[in-house]
Design brief:
By secondary structure, the protein is mostly beta strands. The chain has an 8-stranded parallel sheet with strand order 2-4-7-10-13-16-19-22, with no helix packed on it.
Length: 192
Amino acid sequence: DEDGNLNSGIIAPNSILLLNNLTKGQTMKINSQVNISSLDKNIPSKVSLIINENASNIKIYDAFLVNSTITLNNTSNVLITGNLFNSSNSTILNMVGGECNSFINNEVYINATSVSGIILNNTLSSTVKGNDFEVNALAVKIIINEASANSLIDKNVMNAKADDLIFIYSENSNHDSIINNNLAGVAESIYG
């Protein structure tokens, strides 16, 4: 509709929404269980995907997203995997609340002034694993883990060039596993 809501009445549960050459940065609010992919992984799309609570248990896969963002609002069991992100936006993924959401085996290229690539905010049992990050910016925080619990950040490769560089920033979070990440950076100041 005109507010960007995907009409759940016209799409059957567990259907596949195929993105194809979206170039205007359309906002799509997903309120039903629909999987999301690209019609052709070689053709980029520019979208803002807002996945709401009723759209839990979905998969976003094999998409080529340029200057796009994904927001998960209190969702559960959303799997984002096998995607290519090429962005000049600060943030590509913002998880707000929810539990058991995963960002796995994605390629991420960000070239921006300031980067807060992936934000986990008040989440439970989120996973960020097996991703490749290439980041170039003045101020960088590749992964931000705030007020979350039981997060797994594992086996990611992070290469970054920045003035101020923080690979993984965690605050007021507990029982997290941040392990086996490969970090390489060039910066005036670097923090884990």
